[in-house]
């Protein structure tokens, strides 16, 4: 499944380009438009690149998960997925193969964005460990996004469900601390939306080595949030797959 998905990406570059272009666009757009937020009292870093790079990487990773769902939708439309369901293999392999591919694709925006911001003058005080933690966070987000997308596609049975998948992903990412910290949201509904959004904890883990040194508390909260997301969305995707089997 992973090999087939990889070959499909090479044949259809349109599914691969967004993972490279969009994260770089976010770095440029947010790095310029929000550069003044580093002047706010108590802002955790004086480098806007250190702040937006992890958010941009996780956005790119979410596109990796979306790509797997898009491929499953295409297979459902052309009938190939029915052949996979008839094959003498565990149903978990169909889901696991798509998720493994999503996790591997998450390395692309990680490498591209980190390279770009380092060339642009980012500090990354956490050193190599910061990049490792960021890559782990990106893989987790890619898997969670893939589960969300596959759950929707298994029910809609068409790649035209991509709009709904994207809305869910963008809502989760932007209703978090993607652009400004919680301390700057107090007094608004955005504060509560971001505070209880599990992506906030994942971003805290991904950013920990970019705005300072990697902190164990941030990693624990981030891993816990990913575990909850993957558990709930995994159940959502699995039940959708079982519907197809029925």
Task: Pick out its properties.
mainly alpha, 11 helices, single chain, 246 residues
Summarize this structure briefly.
With 246 residues, the protein is mainly alpha-helical. The protein has helices spanning 2-11, 17-33, 48-78, 80-86, 91-105, 107-119, 128-156, 162-174, 189-195, 198-207, 216-245.
Structural class: mainly alpha
The radius of gyration is 18 Å
Following the backbone from N to C, one meets helices and strands in this order, namely HHHHHHHHHHH
Strand residues, percent: under 5%
Biggest beta sheet attributes: none
Number of domains: 1
> What sort of overall outline do the alpha carbons produce when their principal axes are compared?
globular
Task: Please estimate the helix content.
Answer: over 70%
Number of strands: 0
């Amino acid at each position: 499944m992973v090999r087939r998905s990889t070959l499909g990406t090479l044949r259809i570059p349109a599914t691969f380009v967004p993972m490279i272009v969009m994260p770089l666009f976010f770095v440029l757009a947010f790095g310029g438009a929000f550069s003044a937020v580093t002047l706010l009292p108590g802002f955790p870093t004086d480098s806007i690149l250190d702040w937006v790079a992890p958010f941009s990487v996780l956005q790119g990773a979410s596109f990796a998960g979306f790509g797997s769902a898009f491929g499953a939708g295409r297979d459902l439309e052309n009938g190939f997925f029915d052949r996979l369901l008839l094959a003498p293999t565990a149903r978990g392999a169909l889901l696991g193969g798509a998720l493994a591919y999503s996790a591997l694709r998450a390395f692309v925006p990680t490498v591209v964005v980190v390279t770009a911001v380092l060339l642009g003058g980012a500090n990354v005080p956490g050193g190599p460990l910061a990049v490792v933690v960021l890559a782990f966070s990106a893989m987790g987000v890619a898997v969670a996004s893939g589960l969300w997308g596959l759950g929707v596609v298994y029910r809609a049975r068409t790649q035209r469900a991509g709009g709904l998948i994207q809305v869910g992903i963008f809502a989760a990412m932007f209703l978090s601390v993607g652009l400004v910290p919680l301390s700057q949201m107090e007094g608004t509904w955005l504060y509560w939306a971001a505070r209880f959004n599990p992506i906030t904890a994942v971003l805290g883990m991904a950013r920990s080595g970019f705005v300072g040194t990697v902190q164990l508390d941030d990693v624990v909260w981030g891993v816990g949030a990913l575990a909850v997301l993957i558990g709930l969305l995994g159940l959502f995707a699995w039940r959708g797959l079982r519907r197809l089997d029925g």
